Structure formats: C-alpha cells, structure tokens
Automatic annotation (TrEMBL):
Gene Ontology molecular functions: metal ion binding
Source superkingdom: Eukaryota
Residues annotated as transmembrane: 20-42
Family annotation (SUPFAM superfamilies): Hemerythrin-like
Sorted UniProt keywords: Iron, Membrane, Metal-binding, Transmembrane, Transmembrane helix
Record-stated family: Belongs to the hemerythrin family.
Keyword DNA repair: no
UniProt name for this protein: Hemerythrin-like domain-containing protein
C-alpha cells in the first residue's frame, strides 16, 4: 500500500512539474513573440518604408523622369530635331519650354490652394455658428449645404486634376476650369447670398464687431469643416465618398490637419 502511494505521489509530482514547465514555456513563447515583434518586425517595417521612400526620391532624381521639368512638356517638349545647332539660341528656346512646363505644374498647386481656402472659409463659418450658439434649425441646414458644396467641389477638382494626370505634360482643358467657375458662381448665388447672409444677420446681434471684422488666414494645412467630417462619418456617406476624399488629398498633395491630431 505504501509503495502504491509512493508511486501515485511521484506521478503527481511529475505531472505538476510538467504542468509548471508547460506554463513556463508558454510564457517564454509569448515574451519571445512580443520581443520579436518589437525588435525585429517593427524595424523591418520601418526599413521597408524607408527603402520605398528612397526609391521614390531616386525616381524623382532620374534624368529621364525629370526631362520634362528641364526642357519643356509633352508635344511642346524639347527634341534634338528642334536644334538650330547654336547653343545660345537653343538654350533660349529650352528656357521658354521650361516656363511652359511650370504653368502646368502650378495649375495643380493653385487648385490645392483654392480647396484649402474654401475649406477654411466654410470651417470658420461653422465655428461662428457653434461659438455663438446659432439656432439648430439654421445650423442643420447650413451644415447640409456645406457638405453638399464640398462634395461638388471635390468632384470638380478631381476631374480637373485627373485631366492632367492622364497625360501629366498637358495643360488642364479649359472646359474643366469653366465648370469650376460655374460651380463657384452657383455657390455665390445659391448659398452666399441666402444662407450666409441669414447667418450674418443673426451674428450681428450676438458677436462683437471685432470678431466679425477679424481677418482669417488660410494656412498651409487642410482644415476640414465639421459638416463634412460628420458627413463622412455618417451612414449617408458611401465608401466611394470616403475614397474620393482621400484621393483628392493625395492628388492635390494636401496636408490634412486631422492626421496630426
């Protein structure tokens, strides 16, 4: 009987030892996985991003890629067949084409400035609405109109930008510029002269004159109006709406202030 008890006791001790070792190995495995993730996987990810960024920069420095920046663009780009075999004259011709290329480049930059200025204006109006506790009925309608305006501007700007990205060396068609002008003209007549005037009428009795005369500067970052962030976060926004907004920021090379918050 004592022998049997001794055997059972020994088996229990062995079982307990194995369970302890199993738990210990499990803990070691978790710690090793965590350490591996911190010290190996994350640095590798950082290295891959660095390599990708470096590759992008190398592409920008590639003389062939940079050719249009140096000698013109598209059909009006400099070719050997245009040479007059006179360095002085050829150089002057190339300079003309270089300035022409800059016109194309600046168009997209200016489009980005227009978007930033528009967003800043709408966001400031919404700040005044909230700061001076304008009636919810007006606020709701104002927000709805702002979100609708931004969607239209977003679509127009994407069409304008993509008309160039399909062939990066061509000027933006005048039809896109005219469409954008019509859109802003509609905004002035349908929104500014009605909804914004109504807002100002209420603000005059609530806000100090100094606040209504203060000049608001457009910053280098894109400040998205609350009306549009609410729209994008709501069930009314489709995946396409969110995707197009992200695409707009990327194409126009805008810096979204929300990414730093």
């Amino acid at each position: 009987e004592q022998y049997r008890l001794a055997i059972v006791e020994e088996q229990k001790e062995t079982t307990n030892l194995l369970e302890t070792l199993l738990i210990l190995f499990f803990i070691i495995a978790i710690i090793s996985t965590f350490i591996g993730f911190i010290f190996f996987l994350l640095p590798t990810r950082t290295i891959l991003f660095a390599v990708a960024e470096s590759s992008s920069k190398m592409t920008e420095l590639d003389p062939e890629i940079d050719c249009n920046e140096r000698t013109g663009m598209g059909a009006a780009g400099w070719k050997d067949q245009y040479s007059c075999d006179c360095q002085r004259i050829d150089k002057q011709h190339q300079i003309i084409l270089l300035y022409l290329a800059q016109i194309v480049k600046k168009q997209i930059e200016i489009a980005g400035i227009v978007v930033r200025a528009t967003f800043a204006s709408l966001r400031d109006e919404e700040h005044l609405i909230n700061e001076y506790k304008i009636a919810n009925t007006h606020k709701k309608e104002h927000y709805i109109q702002h979100a609708a305006i931004i969607r239209k501007i977003q679509q127009a700007m994407l069409s304008l930008a993509q008309s160039r990205t399909k062939d990066a060396q061509t000027l933006i068609p005048s039809s896109h510029a005219q469409s954008l002008i019509r859109l802003y003209s509609s905004w002035l007549s349908d929104h500014v002269t009605k909804m914004d005037r109504e807002l100002v009428t209420v603000l005059i009795g609530k806000a100090p004159e100094s606040e209504l005369e203060r000049e608001v500067q457009t910053t280098s970052k894109l400040h998205v109006p609350h009306s549009y962030t609410q729209f994008l976060d709501s069930d009314n926004a489709s995946l396409k709406d969110r995707s197009l907004f992200t695409k707009l920021i990327k194409i126009l090379k805008l810096k979204d202030s929300r990414s730093e918050e």
